[in-house]
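Structure ticket #2291
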Amino acid sequence: MPSSLDSRFSNVYEPIFLFIKKESKYNYYLSLDRLRLPANNFANNKNPEDIIGFEVEDSLFKSSKIKGQVFKILKDPENNIFVEVIWENGKRTVEILQNFDKESQTPVELICPGCGKVIKYDSDINNHNKCKGFPIPVLPPKPDVNMSTELKTSVLFPYNDYRLIRTGKHNYKGKFQFSPDNRGASPGARKSLFGEYLVRQRRYKIFQPIIAEYLGFWRRRKGATIKEIDNLLGYKDTAGHWFRKDFGSWGRGGSIPLPGDWFKLKDILKFDDIYDRWVTETHLVLQTVKPHPKGKNPGDVWNIKLQPSSEAHFATFPEELVRRCIEAGCPDGGVVLDPFAGSGTVGKVACDLKRDAILIELVPEYLTIIKKRCPNVKEIIYVVE
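Resolution: structure written out below.
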């Protein structure tokens, strides 16, 4: 609004508050992917052949990391890429290489055997507490390296020579060259200092609460205590974290067994194999400075143009504002609640986005506007004091 202030800046923004019912990392829905913005300042033009000789780190060891080196690149008829790695202990393995333009871990949907519905997000788990059976992950077919052929590269790689390591490191000459403690704030500085390399990681995104519930079921069935499991595996205060559901990026106590520990645990508890691939399958991920495959985080400042309305209501807000909030906080098939419906903007946008909505409004005159803007009203309930 126009302002006559001359002693301070006028307010040209309004705050949006996002609330959750319970403080829990995996208990509520928030989708950044629907709102991500194109990343214009980075470009990824690397080909699989370019990583020959790159350093490889295996981060899935309990005690310490083991390093290796890319020796050979292979490709199958389905365009899956494989990497032959020579490890510092002399072993050679063939690993799946994750597509450079995709996320580091592949999303997975699960089918609930009790009700047949799909579990797509962490927040969906709460809707199946009373269902029988454990959800079954829907995984892609496992690539067959025997169907692959070697890709020729322009890099000469000495046979059986582990000493040649291509890391992409180079001398840093940016603005943090005289303040090395601050170089972590610069993607370019991190790339100069640490170069590009590959890391062996889990291939799929895993819903840890499901794994914890599954392992807990088999532990109770076997009658084994957590201390007994620790002793059998040679650990102290480690196994207990596998049975806790408080998992997330907030530093909580739940964790997922490493692939090696998973099969050792399977020998102890004698559980079935429905989660073996989901938990233990790995691939190599390129560590470099690159944009998020789905775009950048939109941040917490949104520039949205005002939107005029011809209706007899003086507090309408832009439909774009509502769209962003609904797409971020309401999953497909969810229900939007607006306790102050006004002219029905929230209901209209929810309808456009194929969501149901419940609108509450005290002023009877606004009902005509709502019905006009939301033509597919299913039911109107009048509450009289």
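Closing remark: The first helix runs from residue 187 to 194.
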